[in-house]
Amino acid sequence: MKWLTILNPASSGRRTEKRIDYIKDNLSKISEKMIVTTHQGHAKEIAQEAKDYDGIAVAGGDGTIFEVINGMDIKRQVIGILPVGTANCLAREFKMNNLKDGIKAIKGSHTEKIDILHLKFTDSDDNQTQAYATITLGLGYPTNVAEFANQKLKFMGNFCYPVAALIIAFKNVSKSYSIMLNGNQPEKKTLNGLIINNSRFAGNFTLFPDAKIKDGRFEVMETNANFFSQTLHNLSVFSGTYFYNPANQFSSNLMEIITDEPHNLMVDGEIFENITKLSIEMLPRSLTCHTNGV
What we know:
Layout: E1 3-7, H1 20-26, E2 31-36, H2 42-48, E3 55-60, H3 62-69, E4 78-83, H4 89-93, H5 99-107, E5 111-123, E6 128-133, E7 136-140, H6 141-152, H7 160-168, E8 175-181, E9 187-191, E10 193-197, E11 201-202, E12 205-206, E13 218-223, H8 227-238, E14 248-252, E15 254-267, E16 270-290
Parallel strand pairs: 1-2, 1-3, 3-4
Antiparallel strand pairs: 5-6, 5-16, 7-10, 7-15, 8-9, 8-15, 10-13, 11-12, 13-14, 15-16
């Protein structure tokens, strides 16, 4: 099997730069080449040119994985995960909690097919984009948390998202959304946060403890909480006790969202600006990942 390694040195607050030699040495017998990214979007560009490879090992976080799966041939190529990002949600789904776990999985032969999300979204200038995602979409509060954490708090490592969640809870603003599920009639809702998840994890949190990444459905959480309610909910999630949940929560496999005004959309930690329309379709077991079979 022919492997290419794509490494994002900016992941985890640029701490990944210090691991380049370690990764290269440990994958030297199976990965023919390592390419280090130099700018946002570079991982996608590399994956688009990697058609001669059977597998792509991704050294980065969920944002780097997002770029790679949108450049690779997901029907033919497989992905390996080297979890050196901040949250590493996809890796944690398979209990790959460190770099050694990821290297072991890539060297092994065990693979699993996981669900992915197929997205179509339109911005305020009527530009249309299609993309795949593996983990999380957010509008409102979760997007604001991700933006603040990535721009201001990356130096805090694993604490950047919990701290951002607390700070941004002060600034929650409710907006109007039109939401349509499974082709049914749209419903108008006032929310200050909307998150769509394909995993148990969102950032550093186990937000959906019962979610499964291979069940053909995604989880949805709608919130319209004030600071007190949002902070209580955050504490219940951080502690793993789930003692308080003010949100409306359900699952689906097809969803369309129209906003009354442009919103920033968060997709696997990446931000897309001024989005007015979004559709999400679940693609069951459409991405093949090397795992350790745990």
